Amino acid sequence: MPDFVPELMREYGDAARAVLFRYLPSEEPRRHLYDLLADYPRRGGRGFRPTLCIATARAFGRTTEDALRTAASIELLHNAMLVHDDIEDESIERRGRPALHVTQGVPLALNAGDALSLRSLRPLLDNQQRLGPWLSLRILEEAERMARESAEGQAMELGWRRDNAVDVTEADYLLMVLKKTCWLAVIYPTRVGALIGTGGAVDLEPFLRFGFFVGAAFQIQDDLLNLTGDQAQYGKELEGDLYEGKRTIMLVRLLAKARRSERERLERLLGRPRGERTAAEIRWARGLMDRYGCIDYARSVAHGLVGAAEHEFSRIFGHLPDSRDKRFLAAFPRWVIERS
Amino acid sequence: MPDFVPELMREYGDAARAVLFRYLPSEEPRRHLYDLLADYPRRGGRGFRPTLCIATARAFGRTTEDALRTAASIELLHNAMLVHDDIEDESIERRGRPALHVTQGVPLALNAGDALSLRSLRPLLDNQQRLGPWLSLRILEEAERMARESAEGQAMELGWRRDNAVDVTEADYLLMVLKKTCWLAVIYPTRVGALIGTGGAVDLEPFLRFGFFVGAAFQIQDDLLNLTGDQAQYGKELEGDLYEGKRTIMLVRLLAKARRSERERLERLLGRPRGERTAAEIRWARGLMDRYGCIDYARSVAHGLVGAAEHEFSRIFGHLPDSRDKRFLAAFPRWVIERS
């Protein structure tokens, strides 16, 4: 894997994070609000969402500075969503440390997530100075669309868990991922990057496909790492998804392939509250996934998605002059499934 | 109390609500998202926030239609905040029915609150057509400021409860109310109403004072009704604030006035989880408030605030021609403390 993918992410990610921190006030109430807002951003993160925004704007011929506030806003909103996701999923770890609601309690963490989410509007409003009112408003419209798609995807996934749905199809799963993951992770960053890069003169439709293919591959790889990755590198509890009853493509596949008795045992396991799922049962479910080839199947789907993304890449970016940014965007889909 | 205050609120509130519902899609995922978004708005509400916005815009000479999308956005955001507040406060009732997280579970209710909050941006973006890009962006900036103030106020209050603060002063309390209540309830609606009404040519500073005086009186009256009101009319559990350990002005006063032994018993009571506060203990604390004149004291503070608000009213609106809207704004502060 070429080194320049993580290199560019570090470079652009750091630039966006520097702007992000300028938008987090260090004033009162500090201990109950502003320290909490800065907590997840301070823990790091790969910064690939802001990088996709900046690289797209640059590939289309604009500067880093033109995209920097938008990139910072994306990272702010991403962190805001992590705070609320962790509450909703009852996750206990994030980036290798206890989740915010674990250290601060649900009420203050929930409120901090709200503050972070609405704080992400501020850099988009400040875009006016550099990008003018029309383009600033177009970007805000994209942000609103993305937030809507994300909430729809999150509702689908949480609804499946709450109602212990065991009839989720692969098509349901991919629609959920399109909304929940792809919009914030890839579609929105590249769409607003392209708006900035072209001054608004671009067809945004193909970005939906590119972003879906890359984003879905990313989600599948993330879920694979949760089952097969290295605890220290991963930053969340391994097999946490199984404890949370998360409908991953591996679980969806397993529910479709398992024998009836196994499926019923899985349903009972998934129907119990998180705390009542034992390590032995989780191991049993994990073993079943191996037996039915669910891990390999997920890998092959992710590979197929990356191929489709590379095809879309050439349709969107192929005509643009060669640049480091263009090369990054070309290599990014494959990086997504080869990272560990 | 003149009937025209509730009458105008019904008229403008209904108009804003009709627009609000146009912004709530009736599409999938319905059962896990869009039905939840519409739940609190369908339960009604007095609609005084959108009314303040429309009446202010009209008092300055613009039409209802000019302010309608902004008014709908205010009501959307207000409902979004109620959903999250109810989770944070562990409230069990809202507008006479079970709170959303009680019927749907915390994860889906939290997500619905997020969706509702970001959905409130859409009408503000649609303002462009009628108000142009500059004024639309100014209103979005006010929305961002208001959201920030609200989150700060909420953090203060939740922090006091989590840490069982018993040294909250009246000044702390009023700063918290300025941020948590006044911005969304009065300051923001009248400020954006004035922006719309004048096309942006207005000094917004005095609205801060007017909104603080009215909003603080409103909050104190709300807390008084929680202790002294009629269950059927009130729509939340009576004495719920005491069960929740909410720092009201009555409690702040009581903590300042009580004897040391009483204060220590109060501290222990407030330090226990909500479920472990018994009805007998709540009655004891409630009786102590009567003994130390905390209810009467709160009433007198609210009266003082209304007087100050009426003074600010004449400085802001006094020079404007007589209208039903101006008369509403003049009568509103007193209505706030005379309603039941």
Structural write-up:
Two copies of one chain form a homodimer. The mean pLDDT of chain A is 94. By secondary structure, chain A is mainly α. In chain A, 78% of the residues lie in helices and 1% in strands. The termini of chain A are close together. Chain A has a single domain, classed as Orthogonal Bundle (Farnesyl Diphosphate Synthase). In chain A, helix 1 crosses helix 3 and helix 7 runs antiparallel to helix 8. Chain A is globular, with a radius of gyration of 20 Å. The relative contact order of chain A is 0.12. In chain A, strands 1-2 form a two-stranded antiparallel sheet. The A-B interface holds A 28-29, 31-33, 36, 84, 87-89, 105-108, 110-112, 114-115, 117-119, 121-122, 125, 128, 133-134, 136-137, 140-141, 143-144, 147-148, 151-152, 154-156, 158-159, 161-162 and B 28-29, 31-33, 36, 84, 87-89, 105-108, 110-112, 114-115, 117-119, 121-122, 125, 128, 133-134, 136-137, 140-141, 143-144, 147-148, 151-152, 154-156, 158-159, 161-162.
Task: Work out the count of structural domains of chain A.
Answer: 1
Q: So what's the oligomer here?
A: homodimer
Question: What is the element string of chain A, with H for helices and E for strands?
Answer: HHHHEEHHHHHHHHHHHH
- Top CATH class of chain A: Mainly Alpha
Number of strands of chain A: 2
Q: Structural class of the secondary structure composition of chain A?
A: mainly alpha
The CATH architecture of chain A: Orthogonal Bundle
Strand content range of chain A: under 5%
The overall pLDDT average of chain A reads: 94
Biggest interface found: A-B, 45 and 45 residues
Q: Which geometry of chain A do the CA atoms define?
A: globular
| CATH topology value of chain A | Farnesyl Diphosphate Synthase
Low-confidence stretches of chain A: none
Q: Main sheet of chain A, how many strands, which sense, barrel? A: 2 strands, antiparallel
Q: What's the alpha carbon Rg of chain A, rounded to whole Å?
A: 20 Å
Enumerate the strands of the largest sheet of chain A in spatial order, edge to edge or round the barrel.
1-2
Helix content of chain A: over 70%
Euclidean distance between termini CA atoms of chain A: 11 Å
Give me the number of helical elements of chain A. 16
CATH superfamily of chain A: Farnesyl Diphosphate Synthase
